[in-house]
Design brief:
Elements (H helix, E strand, L loop, with lengths): L1 H27 L2 H9 L3 H10 L2 H28 L6 H27 L1 H21 L2 H15 L7 H19 L4 H13 L4 H4 L1 E2 L6 E2 L4 H10 L4 E5 L6 E6 H5 L8 H4 L4 E4 L4 H10 L4 E5 L8 E6 H9 L6
Parallel strand pairs: 2-3, 5-6
Antiparallel strand pairs: 1-7, 3-4, 6-7
């Protein structure tokens, strides 16, 4: 009987090592190579891809398995030592089993999986996938997912949001590609900007109202030329009395190309669209591009008076992706 329990003791330490190492391998393995391998039809890569496509649920599987193994090691150790020293079995087990579990169940496997994540994860993929599916069948993953979902709602964490999951996965793929050294510095810069822009609001990139260069609706040709000399802008917002009542915008070059007798800011003024300050930069950029808008006003979100707080241009939004562009 003691021999059987001793074998189980060693088996559960190995089981703990398997789950601990898999946790490290999950974060260390190249997502790019896994995707490429899966697309080429290799079964082990397909198994691994199925696992990493459910990162949150895979963590539930790994942590549950590791905790079961740890508890089983503790039980086996206590049983063995109770056969010889029943009065101090728990104390002896703590002193003897804990270091063994720490070294062979945590440190060694994590080090191995960190140094060789891909080959070890490929070998571990099938048994890990079987356990993952088993925990799914018996409801373990569902149970922890519900608990996790409760706390996400409690603390207003939107990790279940489809958009969040997609952008998060894209960011991880980009990061993995960068780590592999496949991209130039310019490509890395654009990718970093692409990742960051998904979180930006219009209020973070707009030109604030006090910095807006604008022109009065009754301004003359000479005044417009003076503004043009000082500021290299193509389009200027137009106001009637002050910057709180901007009514539209004019294209300076189109206006100045007209005969002096036809010069009229009011007659050349174009309608200007308004966006809320809390709108996402990426959605505003898409809308401006689709509707041919080069310039727009920004109003304070939630303001009943529709108070203007800034201005955005398609150029400014594009620069969030590409970096500095020439004025236009």
């Amino acid at each position: 009987m003691i021999l059987t329990v001793l074998i189980l003791f060693c088996l559960f330490i190995f089981m703990s090592a398997f789950f601990s190492g898999s946790e490290t391998g999950l974060y260390s393995a190249s997502k790019v190579r896994i995707n490429v391998g899966a697309e080429s039809g290799e079964k082990k890569y397909k198994h691994l891809l199925e696992l990493i496509n459910e990162p949150a649920e895979l963590i539930f599987t790994i942590l549950t398995g590791n905790n079961i193994a740890t508890l089983a090691v503790s039980w086996c150790g206590t049983f063995i030592f109770a056969s010889y020293w029943p009065e101090n079995a728990e104390l002896i087990n703590t002193c003897a089993a804990a270091p063994l579990l720490f070294i062979f169940g945590e440190v060694v496997p994590k080090t191995l999986f960190l140094s060789r994540p891909e080959p070890l994860m490929l070998r571990s993929s099938y048994p890990l996938l079987l356990i993952h599916r088993l925990f799914g069948k018996i409801g373990v993953r569902c149970f922890f997912k519900r608990i996790s979902g409760f706390f996400e709602k409690l603390f207003d964490i939107s990790s279940d949001n489809e958009y969040y999951r997609i952008t998060s996965r894209m960011t991880k793929v980009f990061d993995a590609t960068i780590e592999e050294g496949y991209l130039s510095s310019i490509q890395r810069s654009i990718i970093a900007r692409t990742s960051a822009i998904t979180r930006l609001k219009v209020s973070q990139v707009m030109i604030r109202k006090e910095d807006i260069v604008s022109v009065r609706i009754d301004a003359g040709r000479d005044e417009l030329l003076e503004i043009m000399r000082k500021h290299p802008f193509t389009r200027l917002p137009v106001y009637r009395i002050n910057r709180n009542d901007m009514e539209g915008y004019v294209n300076i070059y189109e206006l100045l190309s007209k005969p002096k007798t036809d010069f009229s800011i009011a007659g050349s003024m174009l309608k200007i669209h308004t966006y809320k300050s809390n709108e996402a930069v990426i959605s505003v950029m898409k809308d401006m591009n689709e509707n041919g808008r080069q310039i727009a006003l920004v109003e304070k979100a939630g303001s009943k008076s529709k108070r203007i707080v800034g201005l955005i241009t398609l150029k400014d939004l594009a620069e969030e992706l590409t970096g500095e562009l020439e004025a236009f």
